[in-house]
Design brief:
The protein folds into 3 domains: 92 residues, no CATH class; 119 residues, no CATH class; 256 residues, Hydroxylamine Oxidoreductase, Chain A, domain 2 (Up-down Bundle). Helices cover 44% and strands 9% of the residues. The protein is built from 22 helices and 11 strands. The strands form 5 sheets. A 3-stranded mixed beta sheet has the order 7-8-9. A hairpin with a 7-residue loop joins strand 10 and strand 11. Helix 2 packs across helix 3. It is globular, with a radius of gyration of 26 Å. The protein starts with a helix and ends with a helix. Bound molecules: heme C (HEC) (8 copies). The site of one heme C has 22 residues, from helix 2, helix 3 and helix 7.
Length: 498
């Protein structure tokens, strides 16, 4: 009965022309089978794939493209993949042995979670670079750090009352997946299989825990890191989408990392909003001035850019730290960019897993030295100079460095108050084995560096100043919170112990 239903579905779909993609690009017979059923079950998926570059071009044709416009970085692609479009089967059956989620699906061994390891079959350079990026390590950098575990607990934990005291119990996996790991990525696991009654009869599927998830640092079932679909949403996998700021906004929008808010309110963001319909987001390489007249996130952080003569201004990088001399996300102070993307081995002078110590010193052996910082700054500034005078860029950069110094100094003032509070036993700090993030005074302190000092720095780095550096989560709030912390301490000091 089931086989009959399958056959009817396949024949009907073929008859209606539902499986047909563009006549010029051949589709493998394995993919024809998938399309036969999925065109009716998941028309949303099939239609977006049909409009994608993967349906339109074979690897052989893509490899014939010479020069900067070539989009396949692999030199050797298995023969059976060369002359067909990249269809459902080409991605979902790749490297079957390496995937713990491989299962038999209507006669083919498929896996659901197509990983960076699979994409690397054709896009090896992008996959290798991405793996050296902080984003690919976002799961481990957060979850394998004892101190950040306590931050997670202080935010996601479930409060329960024990002997009249409020105690935080660790959050369950679903809460963490809905919260921090939405962006940082989950660790996928197979927890069993289950049979489902589908429109085409009963079928068996693996049960994935931690899924769905598209976090940048997701740990996949073939042990690779990250999700390319975080920026190249399935099944379009488009370069256009990744070049627009909306893609990055999904994760870079909160008060702790307000890049997108700052960008939207900046001159660059205004020009993008006004002019984007006249720009070309598909050309490769991307020509400054001709294709666009103001930068998006991708322009400054990732894209391959050429000038009017086609000369390379910036190489493309999926390792975004190549263009970043500093880490302006305070941990707890802004600091030079880490050398390696795996931050789990970093220890400050007090042995804590942080790139800075509480007195404002840097864990220098793990961070870029001044020469390396200059080199990274030059890569970032190469694009600015295609649209701005050198004096404009230098003036901007000088102010940015000043902002790093000033916000670090204000964070230090707050941290000195916090250390006094811990020393007096008015809160239990890390020296006494306490969670440094869970008490009221500690929350004031973390608001200072996590929200307000960060916001001021993001505003300086990506807006050249503006509201997010002042009244919208900026200096005003940084100063107000410092005063609150000071007043809190003074008030507690004046309470005489009975
Ligand atoms: C005989 C019809 C048929 C064929 C052929 C077929 N599928 Fe499916 N597929 C289904 C049905 C039915 C479902 C379940 C839909 C539902 O959940 O109701 C499904 C589900 C899936 C899922 C989701 C699994 C899950 O856990 O929910 C993936 C991924 C998938 N198919 C990929 C493929 C790929 C890739 C191919 C070709 C290699 C393919 N399918 C061939 C019918 C088919
Ligand atoms: C953080 C966002 C982000 C992630 C994650 C990401 N990309 Fe990209 N990708 C981009 C941007 C932005 C561009 C456009 C670059 C340009 O304009 O030169 C791009 C471009 C590409 C291109 C087109 C290259 C060309 O020659 O035109 C390919 C292929 C690609 N990415 C593959 C991948 C693969 C494979 C992964 C996963 C390993 C991945 N990307 C993950 C942002 C991302
Ligand atoms: C370029 C590789 C690629 C191609 C081609 C491709 N997929 Fe996928 N597919 C992916 C990725 C990546 C995901 C996202 C998996 C994740 O990250 O969890 C995915 C997810 C899915 C899912 C689960 C999505 C959901 O929202 O539930 C289904 C079902 C699926 N694909 C079916 C198909 C079908 C049918 C086709 C052919 C029309 C196809 N895929 C073509 C890479 C591909
Ligand atoms: C079997 C080879 C193959 C695999 C596997 C593959 N791709 Fe592609 N990819 C291609 C080809 C071919 C093109 C089109 C090249 C061209 O236009 O010159 C392409 C183009 C792209 C582009 C640029 C699209 C655009 O709008 O210009 C992106 C982004 C991309 N792939 C991402 C991915 C991601 C992410 C995966 C894994 C989920 C993946 N690819 C898997 C072969 C592959
Ligand atoms: C909306 C997306 C998003 C969510 C949700 C999110 N983060 Fe993040 N997180 C980011 C981004 C983006 C960065 C990097 C910012 C930067 O480098 O400028 C980051 C960086 C971090 C870092 C620095 C890690 C390191 O060592 O590099 C920590 C710690 C952190 N987040 C903690 C958390 C905690 C705890 C939660 C949940 C309570 C959480 N995040 C939820 C997006 C998110
Ligand atoms: C799905 C969520 C997500 C998306 C989408 C995303 N990012 Fe990220 N990004 C993160 C997280 C999480 C981190 C921090 C990782 C860590 O600290 O371990 C991060 C870190 C960064 C960093 C800091 C890297 C460093 O070395 O200091 C930059 C720059 C960045 N992202 C740029 C972008 C750009 C540009 C885009 C869009 C093209 C983008 N991101 C899209 C989640 C995301
Ligand atoms: C005009 C160029 C430009 C644009 C456009 C731009 N950025 Fe930036 N970005 C910078 C500079 C400069 C820095 C600071 C450099 C450093 O940290 O060394 C920075 C820093 C960052 C950081 C902080 C990394 C860290 O050190 O913690 C993140 C995250 C980021 N940008 C994401 C984005 C996102 C998302 C967008 C789009 C909404 C965007 N940027 C738009 C130039 C730009
Ligand atoms: C593709 C061209 C282009 C690139 C690349 C570019 N800018 Fe701009 N930028 C502009 C234009 C156009 C304006 C608007 C000038 C005006 O106000 O008339 C602008 C405005 C600015 C402003 C003023 C911000 C404000 O809100 O008043 C700053 C600061 C700035 N750019 C810095 C940079 C830096 C730093 C870089 C490189 C990291 C850069 N720009 C890259 C085109 C560009």
């Amino acid at each position: 009965m089931r086989r009959l239903l399958i056959l009817v579905a396949f024949l009907t779909a073929s008859f209606l022309g539902l499986t047909g993609v563009s006549a010029e690009t051949p589709v493998s017979s394995a993919t024809e089978e998938c399309l036969g059923c999925h065109a009716t079950i998941h028309p949303g998926i099939v239609e977006s794939w049909k409009k994608s570059q993967h349906a339109a071009m074979t690897p052989a044709a893509a490899m014939a493209v010479q020069g900067l416009g070539r989009k396949i970085s692999a030199e050797n692609i298995p023969d059976e993949l060369k002359n067909v479009s990249i269809g459902c089967a080409e991605c979902h059956t790749l490297r079957a042995k390496e995937h713990k989620d491989t299962f038999d699906h209507n006669g083919q061994n498929i896996h659901m979670v197509v990983s960076p390891g699979d994409c690397a079959t054709c896009h090896v350079q992008e996959a290798q670079q991405f793996d050296k990026n902080l984003m690919a390590h976002a799961y481990g950098n957060l979850v394998n750090n004892d101190l950040y575990q306590q931050l997670i607990l202080s935010i996601n934990g479930s409060p329960v009352s024990e002997k009249g005291k409020m105690v935080l119990k660790p959050a369950n996996a679903a809460t963490d997946a809905d919260s921090c790991l939405y962006c940082h990525g989950t660790k996928l696991q197979i927890t069993g299989t289950k049979s489902r009654d589908t429109d085409m009869g009963e079928m068996e599927f693996p049960i994935l825990s931690g899924w769905p998830n598209q976090g940048v640092g997701r740990i996949n079932l073939d042990d690779t890191r990250g999700s390319c679909a975080a920026c190249h949403t399935r099944h379009d996998f488009s370069i256009e989408m990744a070049r627009k700021p909306y893609t990055c906004k999904e994760c870079h929008v909160g008060p702790d990392t307000p890049a997108n808010k700052v960008y939207e309110a900046s001159k660059h963001g205004n020009i993008f909003s006004t002019k984007q319909t006249e720009w070309n987001f598909k050309n490769v390489p991307w020509s400054i001035g001709k294709d666009f007249t103001a930068p998006t996130c991708a322009v400054c952080h990732i894209s391959l850019l050429v000038d009017a003569d086609g000369k390379v201004v910036s190489e493309r990088t999926h390792e975004v730290k190549n263009r970043l001399p500093w880490r302006i996300f305070g941990l707890i102070y802004a600091h030079p960019q880490p050398k390696s993307a795996d931050l789990t081995t970093i220890r400050n002078k007090d042995g804590l897993p942080l790139p800075t110590d509480f007195d404002g010193g840097f864990a220098t052996t793990f961070l870029l030295n001044p020469q390396e910082r200059t080199a990274a700054a030059q890569v970032m500034q190469a694009s600015c100079q295609q649209c701005h005078a050198k004096s404009w860029v230098e003036g901007f950069w000088g102010r940015f460095l000043n902002t790093i110094e000033q916000t670090n100094a204000t964070t230090l003032a707050g941290t000195q108050l916090m250390k006094d509070i811990w020393k007096r036993g008015l809160a239990t700090g890390p020296d006494k084995g306490g969670n440094p993030f869970d008490e009221f005074s500690e929350k004031l302190w973390s608001d200072m560096w996590l929200f307000y000092a960060n916001s001021v720095r993001f505003s300086s780095a990506m807006g050249g100043g503006g509201d997010f550096g002042v009244f919208a989560d900026g200096r005003y709030h940084l100063m107000k919170t410092l005063k609150e912390l000071e007043d809190w301490l003074e008030a507690r000091k004046s309470v005489k112990k009975p």
